[in-house]
Amino acid sequence: MARFIIRSLISAVVTMLLVSAALFFFIEVGSGDVTVKILGIESTPEQRASYRAQLGLDAPAWQRY
Fold this sequence. Notes:
By secondary structure, this protein is mainly alpha-helical. The chain folds into 2 domains: 1-31; 32-65, no CATH class. It has helices spanning 2-30, 34-39, 45-55, 61-64. It is rod-shaped.
């Protein structure tokens, strides 16, 4: 019985990690540039770069995950 519970817990953790990684990937690929959506298309590249740095979006994907 203990083996079944441990196996179920491990399976649940692995499933949660895979779902979380898949959601992160799809959001990263599909969202486009978030700063343009927030600041508007008239914003300058310098403003967008500054806002990306404030939000931490300039960090690599593995660090943001």
